[in-house]
Amino acid sequence: MLEGQKVALQALELDPKSASAAHGGIKHIDYLISFWMLLPMWQSWSEWGRVATSTLLKIPVEGVILTTNHLESFNAILKRKHLPMWLHSGRCLWFDSLIHILIMRILPGIYSHRKAQQEYSDWLTDRFRDHTGGENLAELHRKLAMEREVQRNLPVCFWPFDPVCDAAAEQVLAHRLVSPPQKHDANTYHAGCKSQSTFTGSR
């Protein structure tokens, strides 16, 4: 697909009116092909990479964090919310001043905010305990979130690349031996497949 887009852009590059935009598009596609489309990159960001990491670290798959979103989120909050009030005309802080402010002002403020959130959650649970039959709303929400996470991270198996198997699968599809998939439940589809002997004559 990317190569096809590159060919189309190369054709547009011959037109002086679109040459600049086409050149930029080609550079971007070259970047995607040389970096993001490499097999090791896909493996590192896929479930395969997560399983490999859990095996290497000897921990459950659930213990392998999927992304660095939590770090990126904190970094964004730090830059947009906490640090701006300490900057002078937008200038960067000296390193020693930054460390001092982080330790003495920002981190205590973050912990204080988290403590207030926990106290509010405890109050909310106690306030409505009688109306929920004694059910802890915060704990119920946590359990539901964990169940969704477990469902999202069900064990997955992977097969190595096999040209012979892929070619046989293409033959099966070409001869329409696979029946349309039928939904079994929220996470499962069932489909039938006739024997290859129906078109090869083998047994």
Helix-strand pattern: HHHHHHHHEEH
Shape: flat
Number of helices: 9
Query: Into which percentage range does the β-strand content fall?
Result: under 5%
Number of strands: 2
Helix content: 55-70%
Main β-sheet description: 2 strands, antiparallel
Average of the residue pLDDT scores: 83
Cα distance spanning the termini: 39 Å
Rounded to an integer in angstroms, the radius of gyration calculated over CA atoms is 28 Å
Description:
By secondary structure, the protein is mainly alpha-helical. The protein has a domain at 162-203. It contains nine helices and two strands. The chain has helices at residues 2-12, 19-36, 39-45, 47-57, 69-82, 95-127, 137-152, 163-174, 197-200; strands spanning 182-185, 188-190. The protein has a two-stranded antiparallel ribbon with strand order 1-2. Helix 3 (39-45) packs across helix 4. The mean pLDDT is 83.
Write the layout of secondary structure elements.
Blueprint (H helix, E strand, L loop, with lengths): L1 H11 L6 H18 L2 H7 L1 H11 L11 H14 L12 H33 L9 H16 L10 H12 L7 E4 L2 E3 L6 H4 L3
Antiparallel strand pairs: 1-2
List keywords for this structure.
two-stranded antiparallel ribbon, mainly alpha, 203 residues, flat, 62% helix
